[in-house]
Specification:
Layout lengths: L2 E4 L1 E4 L2 E9 L14 H30 L1 H15 L1 H14 L3 H17 L5 H22 L13 E5 L4 H5 L6 E6 L7 H9 L3 E3 L4 H4 L5 E5 L4 E4 L3 H22 L15 E6 L5 H6 L5 E5 L1 H5 L7 H15 L3 E5 L27 H6 L1 H14 L4 E6 L5 H20 L9 E6 L2 H5 L1 H4 L5 E4 L1 H9 L17 H16 L3 E4 L9 H8 L3 E5 L3 H10 L2 H13 L4 H12 L3
Parallel strand pairs: 3-4, 4-5, 5-6, 9-10, 9-16, 10-11, 11-12, 12-13, 13-14, 14-15, 15-16
Antiparallel strand pairs: 1-8, 2-6, 3-7, 7-8
Helix pairs in contact: 1-2, 1-3, 1-5, 2-5, 3-4, 4-5, 12-14, 14-15, 20-22, 22-23
The structure holds phosphoenolpyruvate (PEP) and magnesium ion.
């Protein structure tokens, strides 16, 4: 029977296909005493061999779609399966303690994980703990006769349905098969939603109950423009979805005509419309959409895509590729922003009550200077190949910026002394995403070369509303006068010191926010590459004088997010 659900529209586009449920099965079990150890050992070997067969398929697929290097993590998993010490220890546990294979597996794997995690001075061995955890899950699923879902094994067109998707799940999606995804939880600015937009996969998040509303294999229609999901749609609904998809494609074709145009308002003012990227692979989308630079390169994905800390040379190659491709257009590279919802399996972080308020981004970089210096050296070496700007994430105090700058200058000095060619005109800026930095922007502006406002975090910290939590998404209010006043203060403070202010949070590509930002005088707008042409088309229709008048009202007369949304709609209605 046809059912409808409404969620948060997270990535544009419309698709209809069968549901693929990416839902983790229940892997709970009881440890029981057994009489016949040989029978349990047989079960164990069968599960080991099934796991190996499955990993072989996943590995081959990963090598094809993601590359040989990414596939190597699965080699590590297969090596654990083949390790006689691991299997032998489980066999002995079964024999000695007379317990079932599940219990023995868990106890041996817990022991290995604890041993590896305790090797705090050996990052390589610490990484193995994550591998053992993964492999154990797979063996356990086979012992229990459960199927672990695996997006890498999808070989037909599907709508992926999940409770939530991590950024690394999203990175692995093959857009030839995954036509859209829908999740129970999440927000528009969570990283999986941001990545969906750069991959151009329609997405709806925060439906609350998609995983319990749809059966595997049922047809689903997803409208990423409106946030509507239809389960088991009628023929007429499928036809309507197709018509909507055609209209959207036509609209995109019109925007495409602006690909080589500059971003100019109706009164002839030019603004930079740039793109956000996560990896050099995203450059295709940047070029296809005619962005005027990269306003945010989220380098943490380089770390997340790798099975271990990327070397200086690996990083140098990635940065050089981006800088050379974009040259002479500017590229703002943000140093590693790990923590919050972005994890590295090989860099175990302490469990924290509030990871978004915890050990992350520049806080890790200043603490783990070995990692930070490697990244800065790679960036400095790459600076000779293009127009590099470096930006530090999650800066809360001027002291943090000065400490980061000092490390940068030391590494620069070392390289220059060693005869390495580095650019002398690298601008150093900061993300403004913590309210403390926004409030103190007038002081910060004396120290930095530029600001880039990270509204994704700035809104969540100002409103105290988790950006990924749909229960509080009503408080996630980009147009709230409190947010607009902070943004205005940041822009004015930059201009007073002759610096520039940009925005790389998702609000920079939001059609309601852009008119307000034009009115506030923001210089640079950086967004998912897929939003660039829409924003360019919008700017063409607006005059900065009108928008300044409107922004004045939004800052001083309106008292709510909704009032400001209505105000922008009124001012831009005829456009
Ligand atoms: C651009 C931002 O950074 P991220 O989304 O990576 O946290 C932001 O916070 O707005
Ligand atoms: Mg941020």
């Amino acid at each position: 029977m046809t059912k409808s659900l409404k969620g948060i529209a997270a990535s544009d586009g419309i698709a209809t296909a069968k549901a693929y449920l990416l839902v983790q099965p229940d892997l709970s079990f009881s440890q029981t005493s057994i009489q016949d150890p040989e029978k349990e050992i047989d079960r164990l070997h069968k599960a080991l061999s099934q796991s190996n067969d499955e990993l072989q398929i996943i590995r081959d697929k990963a090598a094809k779609s993601l590359g040989e290097e990414e596939a190597q993590v699965f080699d590590a998993h297969m090596m654990i399966l083949a390790d006689p010490e691991f299997a032998g220890a489980i066999e002995n546990k079964i024999k000695d303690d007379k317990i079932n294979a599940e219990g023995a597996l868990k106890s041996v794997s817990d022991m290995f994980i604890a041993t590896f995690e305790a090797m705090t001075d050996n990052a390589y061995m610490q990484e193995r703990a994550a591998d053992i955890r993964d492999v154990t899950k797979r063996i356990l699923a086979h012992l229990l006769g459960r199927v672990l879902p695996n997006p890498a094994l999808i070989d037909e067109e599907v709508i992926l349905v999940a409770h939530d998707l991590t950024p690394s799940d999203t990175a692995q999606l093959d857009k030839n098969f995954v036509k859209a995804f829908v999740t129970d939880i999440g927000g528009r600015t969570a990283h999986s939603a941001i990545m969906a937009r750069s991959l151009e996969i329609p997405a709806i998040v925060g439906t609350d109950s998609i995983t319990t509303s749809v059966e595997a294999g049922e047809m689903v229609t997803v409208n990423g423009l409106t946030g509507e999901v239809t389960i088991d749609p009628s023929e007429a609904q499928i036809a309507q979805a197709q018509a909507d998809a055609d209209a959207f494609a036509k609209q995109k074709a019109e925007w495409q005509l602006l690909k080589t145009a500059a971003s100019v308002t109706a009164d002839g003012k030019h603004f930079d419309v740039a793109a956000n990227i996560g990896t050099p692979k995203d450059l295709d989308g940047v070029l296809a959409n005619g962005a005027e630079g990269i306003g945010l390169y989220r380098t943490e994905f380089l770390y997340m895509d790798s099975a271990e800390l990327p070397t200086e040379d690996d990083q140098f190659e990635a940065y050089k590729k981006v800088l050379e491709t974009m040259n002479p257009k500017p590229v703002v590279v943000r140093t590693m922003d790990i923590g919050g919802d972005k994890h590295l399996p090989y860099l175990p972080l302490p469990d924290e009550q509030n990871p978004f308020l915890g050990y992350r981004a520049i806080r890790i970089s200043l603490d783990r200077q070995d990692i930070f210096r490697t990244q800065l050296r790679a960036l400095l070496r790459a600076s000779a190949f293009g127009n590099l700007r470096i930006m530090f994430p999650m800066i809360a105090t001027i002291q943090e910026f000065e400490a980061a700058k000092k490390v940068f200058l030391e590494e620069k000095d070392n390289l220059v002394k060693a005869g390495v060619k580095v650019s002398d005109s690298i601008q150093l800026g900061i993300m403004i995403e913590i309210p403390a930095a926004a409030v103190l922007a007038d002081q910060f502006a004396k120290h930095v070369d530029f600001f880039s406002i990270g509204t994704n975090d700035l809104i969540q910290y100002t409103m105290a509303a988790d950006r990924g939590n749909d229960r509080v998404s009503y408080l996630y209010q980009p147009y709230n006068p409190s947010i607009l006043r902070l943004i205005k203060h940041v822009i004015d403070s930059a201009h007073k010191e002759g610096k520039w202010a940009g925005m790389c949070g998702e609000a920079a590509g939001d059609p309601i926010m852009v008119p307000l930002l034009l009115g506030l005088g923001l210089d640079e707008y950086s967004m998912s590459a897929t939003s660039v042409l829409r924003v360019r088309s919008l700017m063409k229709k607006l005059s900065t004088a009108d928008m300044a008048e409107m922004a004045e009202k939004a800052l001083n007369d309106s008292i709510s997010n909704d009032e400001n949304k209505a105000l922008v709609e009124k001012y831009t209605a005829a456009k």
